[in-house]
Design goal:
It contains 8 helices and 12 strands. Strands 1, 2, 3, 4, 5, 6, 7, 8, 9, 10, 11 and 12 form a 12-stranded mixed sheet that branches.
């Protein structure tokens, strides 16, 4: 798969990953459809809107679709994220989202890499650091505390969200921490997509004093091995600008960019 170009990989991404629907669906989460749009409700961080394509909706029809989401989440008193990819049509969709009250957050790059070479890598961890798979709520709370130190905002939704995913489908997700003694210095999780050749990587935040020491690369390789064991051939990441250069050096290919547009009542 390493000889595939960005366009081919993006087509596979569109066919196999989108729309990004939880599978299995955790307790308390519901999935609804509004035309081509998939609406996910009951998530701890608010609602989520996803789709493969908008089926050619433009103009007033598209504005009406957007307005229905705004009204629904206004009534619920919840925020909602509309996940927009830069190759989505129509081209004026971002303008229409902003006009409806959605605010763009930081853009990320969607990267795809082949599992086999990543799984075969053997990065060297700093002395005293180990990787460990976790499922307990105590460990999830430690991950959230680490993320809060990194990002300086509330990450408590991770605890309930990951716990519900693990409960709903323990074979569909693995959470991994990097620890130095009793301190979680980094963490990431991998989701194995049912019916697809993909696994997706999430997390990867690392405490500032532990960066540039190979921990992030080791977490990627470890999760690639887990994906390989389950017969997955491709890894997908929505990467921040900090992570993107590392992943490209590891062989990941950028295929598009993605921006969360968030409406908050």
């Amino acid at each position: 798969m390493t000889d595939l170009d960005a366009t081919t990989l993006r087509d596979i991404y569109d066919r196999q990953i989108r729309p990004e629907i939880p599978d299995p669906v955790p307790a308390g989460v519901t999935v609804e459809r509004d035309g081509p749009l998939v609406r996910v409700l009951g998530l701890d961080g608010g609602g989520f809107l996803t789709y493969r394509t908008l089926d050619g909706l433009v103009g007033a029809e598209l504005d009406a679709l957007i307005a229905r989401q705004v009204e629904l989440f206004r009534q619920r008193g919840e925020s909602v994220e509309w996940k927009h990819n830069s190759h989505d049509e129509p081209a004026d969709l971002p303008d229409r989202l902003r006009a409806a009250g959605f605010v763009p957050e930081d853009r990320e790059t969607v990267l795809i890499g082949p599992v086999a070479p990543l799984a075969g890598a053997v990065p060297v961890l700093p002395e005293g650091v180990r990787l460990r798979e976790v499922t307990s709520r105590v460990d999830l709370e430690r991950i959230a505390a680490m993320e809060e130190e990194v990002w300086r905002n509330d990450r408590s939704h991770l605890v309930t969200g990951l716990a519900r995913e693990i409960e709903a489908g323990p074979q569909s997700i693995t959470v991994v921490v990097a620890e130095a003694g009793d301190t979680v210095v980094s963490a990431g999780w991998v989701r194995y997509l049912n019916g697809a050749g993909f696994a997706s990587l999430w997390g990867g935040s690392t405490l500032e004093q532990w960066r540039h020491r190979g921990i992030y690369r080791a977490l990627v390789a470890y999760r690639a091995r887990l994906a390989d064991q389950r017969g997955k051939t491709l890894l997908q990441v929505d990467a921040s600008e900090n992570s993107r250069p590392i992943l490209e050096r590891l062989g990941f290919v950028p295929v598009t960019t993605t921006t969360p547009y968030v409406y908050t009542p």
